[in-house]
Amino acid sequence: MKRSVAACILLAGVVLMFAAEPALAAPGGRIARAAFESFWGRVTLVLLTIVFLPLIIISTMKERRAVRRARRDLAYLARLSPVFRWLDLRERAMACFQRVHAA
Asked: Is residue 18 included in any domain, yes or no?
């Protein structure tokens, strides 16, 4: 008796877990919005946040350190060489980026 009740509860849990939430495809991200308005969508979002938040924080900290180090090195180059001009280098890098991005 206890096994059949446990099996029914387990089966009901599995059915509820995989029950499809209605979502209509439309412009403007309606499917994603509908997915995250449902219970399981919210649970998934919370789990993804818990998993990826440390990675996001670590990568943001590494990026900020790299930016600070690059600015410090550029300032050192500017003091070391009078030929070095930061604005010219920045304009050239932006032009190269835009050409590669356009291609």
From this structure: no
How many domains would you assign to the chain?
A: 1
Is there a domain that residue 77 lies in?
A: yes
Calculate the average pLDDT of the chain. 82
What gap in Å lies between CA 61 and CA 41, rounded to an integer?
29
Using the CB atoms, write b or e for 10-24: b if 16+ within 10 Å: eeeeeeeeeeeeeee
Domain with 83 in it: 26-102
pTM of the full structure: 0.50
Q: Which amino acid is at 92?
A: R
In sequence order, what DSSP letters do the residues of 58-89 get, joined into one string? HHHHHHHHHHHHHHHHHHHHHHH-TT--HHHH
Q: Contact at 8 Å (CB) between 86 and 74?
A: yes
Q: Is residue 15 part of a domain?
A: no
Long-range contacts of 25-29, Cβ-Cβ distance < 8 Å, separation of 24 or more? none
Mean pLDDT, rounded, for 57-83: 91
